[in-house]
Amino acid sequence: MALLRINATPNGLAAEGSEESGPAATRAIRQALACAGPVIVLIHGYKFAPGEPGRSPHRHILSAEPVRGHWKAVSWPRHLGFGRGDTREGLCIAFGWDARGSLAQAYRRAGTAGAALARLAAEIAAEAPGRQVHVVAHSLGARVALTALRQAPAGAFGRLVLLAAAEFSSEAQGALAAPGAASAEIVNVTTRENDLFDFLFERLAPAPRPGDRALGLGLGPLAGCRAPRPTASEQAQHRSSTRWLDIQLDHPGTAPALRGLGFRLAPADRRVCHWSPYLRPGALAFYRALLREPERLPLPLLRDALPTAQAPRWSRLLARPRLRLPLSSVPHVPS
After folding, report:
1. CA distance 60 to 240
2. In this structure, what DSSP letter does residue 180 have?
3. Comparing C-alpha atoms, which of 282, 288, 239, 278 is closest to residue 258?
4. Beta carbons of 191 and 250 less than 8 angstroms apart
5. Domains of the chain, first to last
6. How far apart are CA 80 and CA 277, in angstroms?
7. pLDDT digits over 104-147, tens only?
8. In percent, how much of the chain has pLDDT > 90?
9. 266-297 as b/e: b if 16+ CB within 10 A
């Protein structure tokens, strides 16, 4: 398996397990790019920290062999198609960064890590012109990815899959307008299971402008920012954008639509869960196809097939439980 572990450190990019940054990381990237296939960067979210016992993402979701006994430790690399012996499976880059501290501290640090990711994408573009970087990012990892879009060279990024993104709508709009996003396509995976986390994020992270909303409500309509009202240019940019797609994973219409496209998604079974976008059975297989078979799943096709409206916040948490009565207690039930 071509799995490269790269960390954002105060001194620059460094290979996991090495204290040397800069040239050593560049050499590792150059050697790893010898493999054929897509380049997919995986970015963790809040509270992980490379090199910290019990907190290292390289022993958890970013590992081919995660530590056992933890219910959230699912191997992203393996579920996304790495380690299967295919000579064209590509390069998986497990991107680590220090996401400890308060949410506000980690949010700011995610911006710094995003600048490091932009440098990584630039190095890949220089070493392998035309070979785009694709991304899967969870939680604050989405801020890392969107910040990188603002600073990366044009054409460096391909598809970005954001899972329960901990970022504000106005920041995403700014990233979409940057040259680094010129050829990028962003799939923003939301779920009402994450509403509580979105609510806390909006109150604990430093919003760029008053009333800004988390991406858990989707980027469209642009009224994700309640105040101030979006400018005319922002609204026009949103209407003309075909490079952003919101997918509410727990929408009642999503699983049937994905089934029609050949993907089996298990039912949503929780009211509150920050990790369901990758723990829900069938979800990672869908993301694998998004990144490895983009011609099979162009965004216009997905936009036409999937529900476009986001359910209101708290609609899942406050919904009445569904009672399942035995047939013997229900009169006149047709057979």
Report:
1. 39
2. G
3. 282
4. yes
5. 3-329 (3.40.50.1820)
6. 14
7. 999 999 999 999 999 999 999 999 998 999 999 999 999 999 99
8. 72
9. eebeeeebbbbbbbbeebbbbbbbbbbeeeeb
Could you tell me if residue 268 is left (phi over 0), alpha (psi between -120 and 50 degrees) or otherwise beta? Answer: beta
Burial environment of residue 193 by CB neighbours within 10 A (0 to 12, 13 to 18, 19 or more): buried
Which structure tokens are listed for 121? 């994408």
Which residues is 133 bridged to in the sheet?
A: 39, 157
**Tokens 């995403």, located at residue:** 172
Largest CA distance in the chain: 76
Q: Dig out the tokens for 173 from the structure.
A: 């709009």
User: Where does residue 42 fall: left (phi above 0), alpha (psi -120 to 50 degrees), or beta otherwise?
Assistant: beta
DSSP run (H or E) holding 74: none
Q: What distances in angstroms separate CA 77 from CA 28, 84, 220, 329, one per listed residue?
A: 18, 10, 30, 49
**In the prediction, which pLDDT does 35 show?**
86
C-beta of residue 7 within 8 angstroms of C-beta of residue 97: yes
What is the mean predicted confidence (pLDDT) over 11-27?
78
Position 53 scores a pLDDT of 85
State whether residue 296 is helix, strand or coil. Answer: coil
What global pTM score does this model have?
A: 0.89
pLDDT tens-digit profile of 165-223?
999 999 999 999 999 999 999 999 999 999 999 999 999 999 999 989 999 999 964 43
